[in-house]
Amino acid sequence: MPSVVNGDLCIKCKACVEVCPVGAFHEAEKQVVVDPNTCIDCGVCIGECPQGAIKPADESDEKWVKFNAENAEKLPLA
Question: Among residues 6, 38, 52, 61, which is most buried (max CB within 10 A)?
Fold first, then answer.
């Protein structure tokens, strides 16, 4: 299950970007998003987020699962 960023909690510090081994994060205006097609579900980003904004998709609000998936493909890499 890929990771998902909750935009209500993300402060765009990019701690997750620095530890992601596959470059699954993309930069949105006010947050970063995870590309579910790139994420390998290693969970490293979850422990690194100081805001607790990243969770597995099955533990995330469906609106953020959808937002991450829809926006990852059209945004530049973080």
Answer: 6
